[in-house]
Amino acid sequence: MRSVHASKLRAVPAPLLDPTPSPALPPSASPVRTDDLPGLFDAYSGYVATIAFRILGRDDDVDDIVQDVFLAALSGLKTVRSPDSIKAWLGTITVRKAIFELRRRRLRSYLGLHDSPSLDLVSPGVTPEQHALLQRIYTVLDDLPVADRVAWVLRYLEGESLSGVAQLSGCSLATAKRRVLAAQHAIKRVFHE
């Protein structure tokens, strides 16, 4: 598998500064066949990397997540009925892999085996004030339950609808709303102190 380099990730607009959702397929791209893993990787690796990067808040594990997602796609690709559903399917796998990584980080941190996280949200044109704001937000997100963090990131940084958050997170719409709201309240508490 080819690696998704950090420079490619840094080219993604900083969340909150540009609420544009993750890149979709270019209009000229033809639908990707479900039996073409290299074509799927070329078409969707940026999308997968963007979601993983925004959920994790730094890019040191993003390449691993991207590889894990496409490895899982290799075994489950035959179950995809329509090429139109591939993006959502890969998004769901990405969210699950990112959740696993966040939980693994927390366990390692609890056991004293993990370095303190560094924030790699560097994008061209980001002012020091904007970077500080993003650092504060991700510091709050680090203290939230993983499910709340993921729901909030998908909603506000990735630009997903609430139904999209529910689908990608594998939960009901009511649960997605509750998680987003809980995270939003935590962030507001910190910023209103």
Description:
By secondary structure, the protein is an all-alpha fold. It has one domain (6-191). Helices cover 62% and strands 0% of the residues. It has helices spanning 6-10, 37-56, 62-76, 86-110, 128-143, 146-157, 162-169, 173-191. The longest helix is centred in the middle third of the chain and has 25 residues, at 86-110. The chain starts with 5 loop residues before the first helix and ends with a helix.
In short:
The chain has 8 helices and no strands. The protein has 193 residues and is mainly α.
The residue fraction in helices comes out at 55-70%
Number of E-type strands: 0
| Low-confidence parts | 1-30
What structural category characterises the helix and strand content? mainly alpha
Topology:
Blueprint: H1 6-10, H2 37-56, H3 62-76, H4 86-110, H5 128-143, H6 146-157, H7 162-169, H8 173-191
Q: Which tags fit this structure?
A:
193 residues; mainly alpha; globular; disordered N terminus
